[in-house]
Amino acid sequence: MPSKLPSARIRPANVLDAPAIAAVHLRCWHETYDVKVPEDVYAERAAEGPGEWERALSDPNGPTTWLAQRDGEAVGFAQAVAPGAGHVRPLELRLLYVVAEEQGRRTGTHLLQLAIGDAPCQLWVEEGNTRAQGFYRHHGFELDGERRAVAAGGALTEVRMLR
Q: Is the Cβ–Cβ distance between 98 and 83 less than 8 Å?
């Protein structure tokens, strides 16, 4: 049963949030993918993630990253981009991660709404992540049959969903 806690606070992230976003990103990978991702990939993400997020959040022309916090702690984030010509939708939900203990509290729904609203959109989700696929179906997305291997290594394959 969903928690009766008030909503998480969500705001645009800034460069000072880079370490927190990198930590949530890595934590969510562990919670979601576990042994499907090799340990050396996790180690690389732990080492390089904060710097990559700092560079991304420093870019004045970069996409907005939405950060969800509860009691001052980062619990999720989302980011959408305009992928450019040749894509099936003008908008792509690039990232949406919410830590496991925060799921079911509508934080993901609020992040999704801020990142893409009700726009036509595409996203890629791990093929075995049926919980995430159900979440996106609830928000109007459907699988379109496209699949791709993930560069992160391991046994990850992503499937595309469209709305």
A: no
Cα torsion 75, 96, 28, 84 to 10°: value is -140
- What CA–CA distance (Å, rounded) separates 154 from 36? 5
pLDDT in tens, 84-135: 888 999 999 999 999 999 999 999 999 999 999 999 999 999 999 999 999 9
* DSSP of the chain: ----PPPPEEEE--GGGHHHHHHHHHHHHHHHHGGGS-HHHHHHHHHHHHHHHHHHHH-TTSPPEEEEEETTEEEEEEEEE---TTSSSS-EEEEEEE-GGGTTTTHHHHHHHHHHTT---EEEEETT-HHHHHHHHHTT-EEEEEEEE-TT-TT-EEEEEE-
